[in-house]
Design brief:
CATH architecture: Sandwich
Structural class: mainly beta
CATH topology: Immunoglobulin-like
Shape: globular
Number of strands: 8
CATH class: Mainly Beta
Length: about 110
Amino acid sequence: MSKDSPITFAHRVFWGEHKLIHFEVDGGQDQILAWNLQWTLWADADKESAALITKSTGDGVTVVDSALGMCQVLLTADDWDEVSPGNSYYYELWRVDVNFEQNLASGEFYVR
């Protein structure tokens, strides 16, 4: 089940900066280390346009605490080319293992 987890202005995501975004995944305790994860950012929730940013396990998505089911997404300065400050976007974090696909978190994503 997807967890509604908006990234708001309070998260202080500034355009062009490196940012670590942490997620505690429900049901991921002691299992998440074996999962393939993917985080994607789109212009809006209809996802009709191409993804603006995509991160995967080993390429920006890292498990930081398997016992608690916690992972993090690293956004770097190079990721912001298609993103503008002051706008709202939409993201999803997925488990992408074949036959076990699951939306783990999603929501609006605000960039200052």
